[in-house]
UniProtKB/TrEMBL annotation:
Entry's family note: Belongs to the RelE toxin family.
Organism: Serpentinimonas maccroryi
Pfam families named in the record: ParE_toxin
Keyword list, A-Z: Toxin-antitoxin system
Keyword Ion transport: no
Keyword NAD in record: no
Name the record gives this protein: Plasmid stabilization system protein
Amino acid sequence: MQLVFLPKAEQDLEAIGDYIALNNPRRAASFVRELQAQCRKQAKSPKAYRPRPELGKGLRSCAHGNYLILYAESDRLVQIVRILHGAMDIEAQFAEN
């Protein structure tokens, strides 16, 4: 499966890294790498994770630490849609779109 980060997901990763870097730059870089590695795992077995029809057709999610990785899968493509902190109102984030 091919893995693609949509623009909002790329922005989320950057914001997560920036926030963590305020206190620990080294951990920020390693945590962003962990999130990216989890996304690669999802691309290998996309149907293994929880469907999230309440957020959008075909969306699935996977937790990593306090973050939720949301993605869509079709044919041979996995698109990372968003990476959000679990304390956020996830449904509100998708209602804005």
